[in-house]
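Hi R.,

Quick one: here's the Beta sliding clamp sequence you asked about.
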Amino acid sequence: MLRAERQGESFRQASFELGAGTLTAQLIADEYPAYARVIPDAKVNSSTITIKRDEFLNSVRQACAIHDKAGDVIEIIAKDKGSSLEIVAKGTAEEDSAELDVGLEAKADAIHCKLNSTYVQDMLTAFEGFDNIDMAFKNGKEKLLFSPKGSSSTLKYVVMPVR
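And here's the predicted structure, written out as tokens:
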């Protein structure tokens, strides 16, 4: 069943009743952000690293095992012309830390950034079925663009670094 709610002269909200659940959507009142500002152009970014999806996901999960709560920060480090990506996670206790290496498909440009581990795991889960993931970036302070390597898929995932 579809139910629309009127606010003033226009409809601003719709509810869909599906079995035992209800999905409610509301019209965005503000201007939606420009696509180009939200999703960076991979060609404009200066570097791209190709990562094996399964290995990356397993390493992120292992590193996060020391966290006391969900959503903690992991560090992603690639040395200039390096062949691996280092994933570092730190717990609340000084001795609680994890450092794991993920092999890269090609030599990488240097990057050092901090990312929310939950967002990284969500992204890698969304890319299930793809063997390799491209991570395009300018530096470790601006948004990173993840996409399936060599696929015709238009699937893209943007992750903002944690400051």
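Helices lie at 35-38, 53-64, 117-126.

Cheers,
M.
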